[in-house]
Write a structure and sequence with these properties.
The chain is an alpha+beta fold and about 170 residues long. It is built from four helices and five strands.
């Protein structure tokens, strides 16, 4: 699958500790299908941390969204708990771990939804190998045109002899 095409995946699940590993496997399968094997470990770890944080709270349903832009994988977990006050210390430790494993992260509240997202960047060394191509031949290796014999005494013969350093008009 072409890894430069944008991709999107969205799922809504019940918030429970039992669903965390299942959703990690589902996200991992999508990333592998998209050809992003090298991002699977970090992305599923981040999804697991965010789902554990949501499962520890009073949240009933959680939405997971994953976008692949061709350069960045952005994963967001959102739920209908907009309360910022009284966040447990356990959730703070999850957010600190998200910050260390990702290239960027953030949290925002819109209307009654709380969204926590993180992004992972494709590394330069993650490039797909190019198809093997034979290099273009050097000019000295290029095919030459077939040569027709030059008649002695012709103008072309005289020019060739002059270029070789032989005196003009001498027979060869």
């Amino acid at each position: 699958m072409n890894r430069t095409e944008p991709r999107y995946y969205h799922v809504e699940v019940d918030s429970s500790s039992e669903r965390v590993t299942q959703m990690q496997r589902v996200v991992a399968a999508h990333l592998r299908y998209w050809g992003l094997q090298k991002l699977v470990t970090s992305a599923t770890r981040g999804v697991g941390l965010l789902l554990h944080a949501a499962a520890d709270g009073p949240v009933e349903r959680v939405e997971i969204e994953t976008w692949w832009t061709g350069q960045h994988l952005i994963t967001a977990v959102s739920h209908h708990d907009a309360s910022e006050a009284g966040r447990p210390d356990d959730e703070q430790s999850h957010l600190l771990e998200i910050a260390t494993l990702s290239d960027g992260w953030g949290s925002c509240t819109t209307n009654s939804r709380r969204i926590i997202w993180f992004s992972l960047r494709k590394s330069d060394h993650d490039r797909e190998p190019l198809a093997d191509k034979d290099p273009a031949p050097w000019s000295s290796e290029a095919l030459t045109l077939p040569q027709t014999p030059v008649a002695p005494g012709s103008a072309v013969h005289e020019i060739a002899r002059a270029l070789e350093g032989a005196p003009a008009g001498t027979a060869s």
